[in-house]
Structure formats: C-alpha cells, structure tokens
Amino acid sequence: MGDRVRVLITVRLEDGDKTREILTKTDGAPVDHYGSDGFDHLAFDEINYGNLDGLKQLAEAGIPFDSAWGMRAEFGSGTLYSRYNDYGGLIQFEVYDTEINPDIHRLLKLIDNYKELKEYILIHKEQTTPLPWETQDKNSRLFRTIRLIAPATING
After folding, report:
1. Contact indicator for 91, 85 with CB cutoff of 8 Å
2. CA-to-CA distance for 2 and 35, rounded, in angstroms?
3. What φ, ψ does residue 10 adopt, rounded to 5°?
4. What is the predicted pLDDT for the residue at 48?
5. What is the signed CA dihedral for 73, 46, 81, 142, rounded to 10 degrees?
6. Distance CA 64, CA 90 (A)
7. Amino acid 156: pLDDT
8. What integer pLDDT is reported at residue 153 of this predicted model?
9. Neighbouring C-alpha atoms within 13 Å toward the C-beta of 65
10. Full DSSP string of 89-101
11. Segments making up each domain of the chain, as ranges
C-alpha cells in the first residue's frame, strides 16, 4: 500500500458530466463536487500516490483537465496538466508545488545580466504554465476529429 492522498480534478463545466462518468467507473464516485467560474471540481479521497486510474481515459476522450494531489512522506504536492495544442496534439506535464517559482539562487546569479535573466524566467514560465483554458474548446475538438480520422496517429 502506498501513500494515499486527496486528488482534485478540474475540468470545464461542459466536460463535467463525462468526467464524472469516466472517473466513477475507474475510481469510484467523487467524495465532493462543486462548480465555480466555468469549471467543475471533483474531489477523490484515498487515491494511491495521487494517481487516478481514469486520467488516460479522460485524455483519450479529449477532455482537458488539471489533476492536483496533496503531499505525503514519499512525494510532494503537485498538478498534472493535460491540454491540447493548436494542432490537436495532447500535451501533459507535471509541476510539483516546489517547482512553481523559479530558483531564487539562479535569479540572483543572473540579476546583473538582463538578457539571461529574462531568458531564464521565460523558459521557466513555459515549463510550468499549462496552455490556457480558453483555447481548449477548439483544440480538444481538433484532437477528437484527428482521432476519428486517423486514430493510429495519436500517441497519447
């Protein structure tokens, strides 16, 4: 048995019903559910290492999501971001809470070199910031269309 944590899934309101359907089949019903500001939030308790079994199915269904987990002795808290780019490609990456801010020691070393400082900050932002929710309606529809036309080309 691994460390069990609470996981909070965030999806667009229009994806809420399908998300609940998929995750209830794979991980059981959420222990809490609420909507706010255009998003649906579903909480699951006692999830082993913060890994819900249905996340791959959400991505395959063209549902963009955030999956945030809490900290335990063996791992830190963080978020898995799942989005679709402008070409309909699936982009997923994890950011641990300790990685959100750029390294202060590196910033201080670069403080006198504006060009390198700017480059470091922009690279860090790119590595820790998911694609915006505003693009996900079009991009996820493109993902689903590509998947219908040529399912073998999707490697998500």
Report:
1. yes
2. 30
3. -120, 125
4. 87
5. 160
6. 9
7. 46
8. 53
9. 30
10. -EEEEEEEGGGSS
11. 4-151
